[in-house]
Amino acid sequence: MKLFISYSHGDERFARSLREGLERMGVCVIDPTASTRPGDSLGHALRQAIDESDAAILVIPESGSNGANLAFFEAGAAKALGKRLFVVMPGAGDRELPSIADFAILDASRKSSDEVAKTLVHALAAA
User: Fold this and answer.
1) Can you list the domains of the chain with their CATH numbers?
2) Is the pLDDT of residue 40 over 70?
3) Which residues contact 116 (CB under 8 A, 6 or more apart)?
4) Which residues of 26-52 are buried (b: 16+ CB within 10 A; e: fewer)?
5) Contact 25, 124 (CB under 8 A)
6) Exposure on the CB side of residue 47, measured as CA atoms within 13 A
7) Disulfide check for 59: which of 7, 20, 39, 119 has CB 3.0–4.6 Å away?
8) 3-class DSSP state of 61
């Protein structure tokens, strides 16, 4: 199972923790922003990462945060490419749900990253 993860800069710590929890459960998480080197084409890396994934996770960005539009764009691209989308809502800040149909929402405001990862793995297995 390969998951693409999309998040804004402000949620980097949460996304990293979630990625680590998923990886401890044996899930391969593709995060091109963490592995892209200077000079690499981020657009190409994002497209390749979405293509290679089985599903996508969108960490809902805080309204107006740096990278929020890109996170929503990536999630929309994943949906357009037929990927199942899981939406994780961290607890802090003012966050708006995307207008992307057919997604599952996971409220992570009172859960550890490992609990969120476990829930996502179970949801993926059931899909």
Assistant:
1) 2-126 (3.40.50.10140)
2) no
3) 18, 21, 88, 106, 108
4) ebebbbbbeeeeeeeeeeebbeebbee
5) no
6) 5
7) 7
8) coil
Strand, coil or helix: what is 1? Answer: coil
| Distance from chain centroid for Cα 93 | 17
Residue 18 pLDDT? 92
Report the predicted TM-score, pTM, of the whole model to 2 decimal places. Answer: 0.77
DSSP code string of 102-116: SEEEEE-TTS-HHHH
- How far is Cα 31 from Cα 118, in angstroms, rounded to an integer? 19
Q: How far is 46 from 6, CA to CA, in rounded Å?
A: 10
Give, rounded to a whole angstrom, the gap between the first and last alpha carbons of the chain. 12
Tally the C-alpha atoms within 13 A of residue 100's C-alpha that lie toward its C-beta.
26
Q: How many residues does the chain have?
A: 127
